[in-house]
Structures are given as structure tokens and as C-alpha cells.
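wait is this the right file?? whatever heres the structure
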């Protein structure tokens, strides 16, 4: 699938969330802690009784989700569009569309977009309390 088709699906996709019902994607919002990072919540912890949460994430070219960790959550990401690097516990790994990575609880990680935007799906287990 071409990159622009993936971006279009993200913008126009149909999702189901118990809180939102079937329909268009939930609204995008900026993450106040990370410049150039926006999220759309697909399923919140409340939707899944804290079993997991899932979010679409857009990182503008040249921006990053800076180093952080989740003390009690596993994080699984799949790269939908764009190229960049994940910094995982001191290691740097390049990624491209279709790549996935899993981050265990307590492991520092960051996502850095190259020149173009990055779109990814992030799933957290368990969902936030």
C-alpha cells in the first residue's frame, strides 16, 4: 500500500470504540509535552476495563517522542508510515513502514521522525489506570 493511502486511511478510517460508536476517527489532539506529536485515541483504558489502550500517533518530521518509560505497561508499536529511529534502552534502531517494536515496562525509549512525518499505532497493556 502506498504511503499516501495509509495516511488517507488514518484520516478517513472507520473505527469502532464503545465510547464513540462506529464512525470516523476520534479527534486528534496535541501532546503538550512533545512538540509536533499528535494522538487520536482508538480505545481508552476505560473502554477496555483497563485491559489495554490503543492510539494513532503522528510525529512531524524532525520531531520526536522524547525519552520516557512506562513503569507498569508494555507498549507495542507498528509503523504505518514514515521513517525514523527508535531509541530503546540506549540502542538506536532505524524503522520503516511495517516495522514493529515492543517495549517492556521500565525500559526508556524514544521515537524520532526523520525528515518526513511518522504515523504509528501504539498499544499499551494494561491500559492506563
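ok assuming it is, sequence goes like this
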Amino acid at each position: 500500500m502506498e504511503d499516501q493511502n495509509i495516511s488517507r486511511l488514518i484520516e478517513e478510517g472507520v473505527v469502532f470504540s464503545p465510547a464513540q460508536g462506529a464512525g470516523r476517527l476520534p479527534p486528534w489532539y496535541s501532546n503538550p509535552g512533545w512538540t509536533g506529536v499528535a494522538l487520536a485515541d482508538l480505545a481508552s483504558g476505560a473502554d477496555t476495563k483497563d485491559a489495554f489502550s490503543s492510539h494513532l500517533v503522528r510525529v512531524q518530521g524532525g520531531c520526536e517522542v522524547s525519552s520516557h518509560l512506562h513503569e507498569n505497561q508494555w507498549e507495542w508499536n507498528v509503523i504505518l508510515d514514515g521513517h525514523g529511529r527508535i531509541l530503546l534502552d540506549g540502542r538506536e534502531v532505524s524503522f520503516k513502514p511495517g516495522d514493529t517494536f515492543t517495549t517492556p515496562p521500565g525500559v526508556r525509549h524514544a521515537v524520532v521522525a526523520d525528515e518526513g512525518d511518522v504515523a504509528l499505532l501504539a498499544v499499551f497493556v494494561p491500559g492506563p489506570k
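The first strand starts at residue 14 and ends at 15. so i think its the right one actually
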